[in-house]
Amino acid sequence: MDIVDAQVHFNLLGSLESGMAAMDAAGVNALLYDEYWSFDSQNRILPGYELPGGAFRQVFPLAEEAALRYPERFAYLVRFDRHDPELDALIATIRTMPQRKALRIVPWTPEGFHQFAEGADEPIFAAAQRHGVPVFVLLPGRTRLLHRYLHAFPDVPVIVDHCGVTLAPGRLHDDRVSGFDDVLALAQFPNVALKWSHAPRLSAGDYPYADVLAMLLRVVAAFGPQRVMWGSDHTQSKDHHSWAESLYYIRDTPELSDEEKGWILGRSLRSVLQWPAPSGASFGTP
Predict the structure, then answer these.
(1) 115: closest CA among 157, 150, 83, 154?
(2) Which keywords are on file for this protein (predicted)?
(3) Do the domain assignments include residue 205?
(4) pTM of this structure
(5) Domain range spanning residue 129?
(6) Contacts (Cβ under 8 Å, ≥6 apart) of 96
(7) DSSP-derived secondary structure letter, 81
(8) Number of H helices and number of E strands within the chain?
């Protein structure tokens, strides 16, 4: 089975070689690289630099290196400031630079969520629609804020990050707290997919995370496996569970068919990103 991880801050694993060794040990064939070093004093994600007008331009040197050296194993996403004077041209690069596949919006702060709710990121969505670019959006417990964008930009492939729920340990089983019903309601929009990452951290129990798996089955019933993609978020979750555990509770469950697992664990992400598996690749069975 082609296992493709939709969420790893791969640079936090150390050298490229040590990170790839960890991938191999977990049984991950390829991954979407989200380069993240830290936040600066203004809650801007590093690395990057401030432009003369005050906009912050992020750069992705380690993700680019990995993707250029090992294109069969790495694709990467990017983030751009809505105020960047070259926003449209930057978003256009997602369809022209090797293995640069998607855009990510991370409001993160209360002010950022408020601005997103007011439509501040419409220029990003408009450019993404012009250039056919998928957009990942992190809105934990606030997925209702997406509706105005989904109605305005129906041709943008939108992927909801981190299950769409409040990122609080042991809370996924509580629909009221997590906002899970709002997440399921997004299935009505055919251009929306859900990234099932970070999920084991939300479990009230231990591996194999029965409550998390029960919620995943509801997600698959609502969206279909073609619009659900697995991500480990390993660098942010390794204090709670291993990379392998984040994968195997899905890979080994009898509650999902092999075809459903194939979509969730790799094919869905490849389809959305237009990232085909390497020619002639042969993958093991689950």
Answers:
(1) 83
(2) Hydrolase, Lyase, Plasmid
(3) yes
(4) 0.95
(5) 37-224+235-240
(6) none
(7) -
(8) 13, 12
CA distance 174 to 211: 10
Residue 258 and residue 224 in contact, taking contact as beta carbons nearer than 8 Å: no
Could you tell me which of 178, 150, 268 has the C-alpha nearest to residue 220?
Answer: 268
Q: Is 260 contained in some domain?
A: no
Give me Rg for the CA atoms of the chain.
18
pLDDT of residue 286: 45
Decide if 275 contacts 10 (C-beta within 8 A): no
Can you give the length of the chain in residues?
286
Q: Which helix (H) or strand (E) element contains residue 228?
A: strand 228-231
CATH classification at residue 100: 3.20.20.140
Predicted local distance difference test score (pLDDT) of residue 78: 98
The answer to whether residue 253 sits within a structural domain is: no
Average pLDDT of each block of 10 consecutive residues along the chain (286 residues)? 97 97 98 97 95 97 98 98 97 96 94 96 98 97 96 98 82 63 97 96 93 95 98 95 98 98 98 92 57
Please give the Cα distance from 88 to 82 (Å, whole number): 10
Give start and end residues of each alpha helix (H) in the chain: 16-26, 61-69, 87-92, 110-117, 122-131, 147-152, 175-178, 180-185, 210-223, 234-237, 243-251, 258-262, 268-273
* Partners of 74 in the β-ladder: 31
Query: pLDDT value at position 204?
Result: 87
| 25 domain residue, yes or no | no
Amino acid at 283: F
Q: Rounded to an integer, what distance in angstroms lies between the CA atom of residue 126 and that of residue 129?
A: 5
